[in-house]
Each structure stands twice: as structure tokens, then as C-alpha cells.
């Protein structure tokens, strides 16, 4: 089943069950505590917190999400993307566990010809929170899941709260068993690679007080109105229903992956390291398209930096795969990604020119940065090795940053490829010193202490010396 069809079926199932279909919100979070939306419930948060009242008591959506914290997992696990879509159904003081659990099961197991996803119940396992007997009973008695297929999980996995006083409660998750070739028997408790998490059902049941997040907070009582928030990973379900090994090989992301292999002259499936890189490229290009589509521009801070980092990681991986440093690959891959996503997001077609403009420009700037800095990097790495060291100095990393605009991420990665570490502590000290100096200078200027007139006259006389070191991405000093 195609990804777009899975999304349609999900919405229509919940619509038939009385839910209002709510379009995805932008990736740029309205919530000031977040940069980008990491979960389907985010746009509904004010309703869950009782700050606003919705026009409906139940809703369903396919929400665009970005999880930057998963970036290092991408391509290495079978299931983590930076951009993904969360299918969700929500109840605002309407139905609770007794309805949410059977509805989820019904959709997942109803045969395809009858509008469901047709997953064999024998392939499914579920988890509930340690003391949530209520949920366990619903799974066992109402749904008919065998007791040995219901596992109990602790705080870390199966408890939800926002980290602050407010609503909280247990979760229950549905897992798909990919079979013995993916790992050991024993349910999600035993192997998270073999048993892949597809759907999280959150039961907002209690009011929590102040305290640490790992259970170190008091429960103040039951919420007067209990809520449901669920999240089903669209790409994960697509991988299951399409019978592929991982989310990067599904119909949409897979198209970018295979085109990237063609363009770089590699062959997917031949070499583990290359495969990881191809998966990273496929994931990251798509995330970049979606971020730019929602108005994010590459920059050195916040969402802009997330985008820049994602684009630079794609470019680096494409260079490593192809062994070429002069070819620009992103234009073509962006075209493929937009084409693959246009059924779900037709607005991408109208925005295609803008998306290409932003991505092409960043790729070109980064190529200039790399060209300028790579020689210096090579010399510094050589010096380090000749001195018998394995640690790239903080001052070299700082110079690369300051003069050539190398983000520290990039230096770390390039050093690691050569078996070197980087003295990050001294790098950060130098960054701090530079910041302090800049601050002091600014202050001095404000106080009118600096006599710039002589300097200005000198410059006029001598003609300005052109400083060639910087690229437009030179200053990343705000980046933490
Ligand atoms: P995992 O344990 O596999 O990292 P999670 O517990 O962090 O997943 P949730 O926060 O429960 O995930 O999110 C709800 C659902 O969203 C998950 O069950 C999964 O299907 C999907 N999902 C979460 N993170 C990702 C991701 N990085 N890429 C793709 N899908 C994801
Ligand atoms: Mg996770
Ligand atoms: Mg999990
Ligand atoms: Mg989860």
C-alpha cells in the first residue's frame, strides 16, 4: 500500500468514527517552547492544557514532524527519520482507553479490502505501563490479545508527561514482529529492532506536580476530563505494509535513495557504510525540502541551523559516496523528492522554485566553504599525526571555524574519518573568548572610546585591503 493511501485510510477511518479531520500544522511550531514540531499532538496542546476549547471533541490528523534528536540514528536503525509524519487521533475529554484501544486494533487488523491495514494479529504485540491494569484488561478481554503478547514497560517507555506540572499518564504501544531474521524472540522487551514500534497511545489521565521526570513527581489526582493522544508513524507503517527492510526503502523516501545511488555511481545493498550514507542522504534531502517548504531558511541559529546541518550532512555524504567534490547533486534529488511527496503535499509544486533556490544556494556556499577549508584541515591533521598525536587541536578547529566557516560538527566528522578526535574543550574556550572580546568591543564603541577617525583616514588613503577568508557562512558563533 502506498504511503499516500495509508494516510488517506487513516483519516477516513477516524472520520467515519466521528472525528474531525484537521490539516497538518506547519513544521515551525507556534509553541514558543519548541523550534519545530516533533509530534502530532503539538498543535492540539492548548486544548489538552485547557487553555483553549476546540470546536470538536475528537480529531484526527497527519502531522508533519521533525525530530532533530534522532539525527544520529538516521540510516543506522531501520526506523528513525528526521522528517516523518505522525498519524493521530485525539479525544478532548470525550472517549478514553476503552474506545481508543479497540479503535486502533480495528484499523490495524481490518482486511485491506474492508478499509483497514490488514495486518495479521499474530504479528502484533502490545505494551502497557507497569501498573495500568485497566489497559491490559482492555487488550486482553475486549480486543482478545493473548496475555503473553501484552508486556509491561516502565516510565522511560510507557509514561507520558510534558516535563512540567500538568497532565500526564500511561501509554500503550503497538509493535510489529518483523520475524526471526531481525532478532531474538521475546517481544518488544527483548528486541526493539525485530519488534518495531508503530503506534503509541497516550492516556492523559492524571495531574502531576513538581519533580524530576523519571517518576520523581507526585500525582495530584485524576484529571477531571481525560484525553487521548495517539501517534502512528506513517513511514514505519509504510515499511511494514510494503514489506521492505526499513523506512528509507519505502515508496517515497526510496525514490530519493535510489536516485542518489545512481547519481553517485554506487549500488544500494552492496556495502554497509555506503548504504547508511545513502539512507542519510534520502532522509535528509526530504527533510530539507519540507523545512524550506514551510519557510525555514538556512542559518546559524535555531530552525535555520537544523536545516543547514541537515543539508550539509547530505552534501558531505554525497561527496563521500561519489568521491567527487565538484558535482552538485542536490538540485536533482530535490526534484525527485518533491515529485515523490506531491501527492500528499501538492503545495510543494507551487513552492518548487523557492525550494530549489534555497537549497541550490546553500549547496554552492557550502562547496565554497569546503574548498577553502579542506586544505587547511588536511595540513592540520597531517601536523597532528606527525607529532604522534591523535587529537586535532582546539586552535586548529577554531581557525577552521573562524576563517573558513567550518561548523564544529564538520570538523568533528572529518577528524573522525581520519581516526582523530578534536579538543572540543579548548575550541569552546576560544569561541567564548572571541564572543567576550566582541562584546567588550561593542561596549567600547557605544561609550565612544574608540578613536576610529585615524583608522578611517588611513583606509581612505591606502585603499581597503580585501579580506578573502570569510564565506557568507563564516560566523557560527551563536551555534551552541
Ligand atoms: P522509538 O522508541 O522507536 O524511537 P518513540 O517511542 O520515540 O519511537 P513516540 O514518541 O512514541 O516514538 O512517537 C509516536 C510514533 O511516531 C512512534 O511509535 C513511531 O511510529 C513514530 N516515530 C517516532 N519517532 C520517529 C522517527 N524519528 N522517525 C519515524 N517515525 C517516528
Ligand atoms: Mg524515539
Ligand atoms: Mg519508543
Ligand atoms: Mg513511543
UniProtKB/TrEMBL annotation:
Domain of life of the source: Bacteria
Keywords: Aminoacyl-tRNA synthetase, ATP-binding, Cytoplasm, Ligase, Metal-binding, Nucleotide-binding, Protein biosynthesis, RNA-binding, tRNA-binding, Zinc
Top class in the EC scheme: ligase
GO cellular component: cytosol
Keyword Translocase: no
GO-annotated biological processes: alanyl-tRNA aminoacylation
Residues in Alanyl-transfer RNA synthetases family profile domain copies: 1-480
Keyword Zinc: yes
Subcellular location: Cytoplasm
GO MF terms, alphabetically ordered: alanine-tRNA ligase activity; aminoacyl-tRNA deacylase activity; ATP binding; tRNA binding; zinc ion binding
Catalyses which reaction(s): tRNA(Ala) + L-alanine + ATP = L-alanyl-tRNA(Ala) + AMP + diphosphate
EC number(s) per entry: 6.1.1.7
The record's free-text note on cofactor binding: Binds 1 zinc ion per subunit.
Cofactor: Zn(2+)
Coiled-coil residues: none
Chain's role: Catalyzes the attachment of alanine to tRNA(Ala) in a two-step reaction: alanine is first activated by ATP to form Ala-AMP and then transferred to the acceptor end of tRNA(Ala). Also edits incorrectly charged Ser-tRNA(Ala) and Gly-tRNA(Ala) via its editing domain.
Entry's free-text remark on domains: Consists of three domains; the N-terminal catalytic domain, the editing domain and the C-terminal C-Ala domain. The editing domain removes incorrectly charged amino acids, while the C-Ala domain, along with tRNA(Ala), serves as a bridge to cooperatively bring together the editing and aminoacylation centers thus stimulating deacylation of misacylated tRNAs.
Protein family: Belongs to the class-II aminoacyl-tRNA synthetase family.
Name of the protein in question: Alanine--tRNA ligase
Organism listed in the record: Nocardiopsis aegyptia
Gene name linked to the record: alaS
Full-protein positions shown: 1 to 480 of 890
Amino acid at each position: 500500500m502506498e504511503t499516500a493511501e495509508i494516510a488517506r485510510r487513516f483519516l477516513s477511518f477516524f472520520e467515519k468514527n466521528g472525528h474531525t479531520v484537521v490539516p497538518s500544522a506547519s513544521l515551525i511550531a507556534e509553541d514558543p517552547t519548541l523550534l519545530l514540531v516533533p509530534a502530532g499532538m503539538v498543535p492540539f496542546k492548548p486544548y489538552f492544557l485547557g487553555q483553549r476549547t476546540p470546536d470538536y471533541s475528537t480529531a484526527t490528523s497527519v502531522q508533519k514532524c521533525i525530530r532533530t534528536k534522532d539525527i544520529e540514528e538516521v540510516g543506522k536503525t531501520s526506523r528513525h527519520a528526521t522528517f516523518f509524519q505522525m498519524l493521530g487521533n485525539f479525544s478532548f475529554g470525550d472517549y478514553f482507553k476503552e474506545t481508543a484501544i479497540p479503535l486502533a486494533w480495528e484499523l490495524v487488523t481490518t482486511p485491506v479490502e474492508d478499509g483497514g491495514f490488514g495486518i495479521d494479529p499474530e504479528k502484533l504485540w502490545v505494551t502497557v505501563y507497569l501498573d495500568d491494569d485497566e489497559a491490559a484488561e482492555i487488550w486482553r478481554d475486549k480486543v482478545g490479545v493473548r496475555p503473553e503478547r501484552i508486556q509491561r514497560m516502565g516510565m522511560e517507555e510507557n509514561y507520558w508527561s510534558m516535563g512540567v506540572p500538568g497532565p500526564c499518564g500511561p501509554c500503550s504501544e503497538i509493535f510489529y514482529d518483523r520475524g526471526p531474521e531481525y532478532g531474538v524472540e521475546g517481544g518488544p522487551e527483548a528486541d526493539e529492532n525485530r519488534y518495531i514500534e508503530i503506534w503509541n497511545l497516550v492516556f492523559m489521565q492524571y495531574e502531576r506536580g513538581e519533580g524530576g521526570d523519571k517518576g520523581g513527581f507526585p500525582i495530584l489526582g485524576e484529571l477531571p476530563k481525560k484525553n487521548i493522544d495517539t501517534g502512528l508513524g506513517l513511514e514505519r507503517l509504510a515499511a511494514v505494509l510494503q514489506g521492505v527492510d526499513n523506512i528509507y526503502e519505502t515508496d517515497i523516501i526510496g525514490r530519493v535513495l535510489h536516485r542518489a545511488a545512481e547519481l553517485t555511481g554506487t549500488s544500494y545493498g552492496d556495502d554497509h557504510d555506503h548504504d547508511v550514507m545513502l539512507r542519510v542522504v534520502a532522509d535528509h534531502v526530504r527533510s530539507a525540502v519540507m523545512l524550506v517548504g514551510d519557510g525555514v531558511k538556512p542559518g546559524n541559529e535555531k530552525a535555520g541551523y537544523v536545516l543547514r546541518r541537515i543539508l550539509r550532512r547530505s552534501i558531505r555524504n554525497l561527496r563521500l559516496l561519489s568521491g567527487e567534490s565538484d558535482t552538485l547533486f542536490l538540485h536533482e534529488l530535490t526534484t525527485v523528492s518533491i515529485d515523490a511527496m506531491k501527492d500528499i503535499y501538492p503545495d510543494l509544486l507551487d513552492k518548487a522554485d523557492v525550494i530549489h533556490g534555497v537549497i541550490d544556494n546553500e549547496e554552492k556556499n557550502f562547496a565554497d566553504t569546503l574548498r577553502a577549508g579542506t586544505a587547511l584541515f588536511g595540513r592540520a591533521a597531517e601536523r597532528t599525526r606527525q607529532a604522534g598525536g591523535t587529537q586535532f587541536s582546539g586552535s586548529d578547529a577554531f581557525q577552521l571555524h573562524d576563517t573558513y566557516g567550518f561548523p564544529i560538527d564538520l570538523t568533528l566528522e572529518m577528524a573522525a574519518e581520519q581516526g582523530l578526535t578534536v579538543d572540543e574543550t579548548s575550541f569552546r574556550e576560544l569561541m567564548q573568548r572571541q564572543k567576550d572580546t566582541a562584546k567588550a568591543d561593542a561596549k567600547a564603541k557605544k561609550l565612544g572610546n574608540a578613536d576610529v577617525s585615524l583608522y578611517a583616514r588611513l583606509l581612505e588613503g591606502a585603499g581597503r585591503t580585501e579580506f578573502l577568508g570569510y564565506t557568507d557562512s563564516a560566523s557560527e558563533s551563536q551555534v551552541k
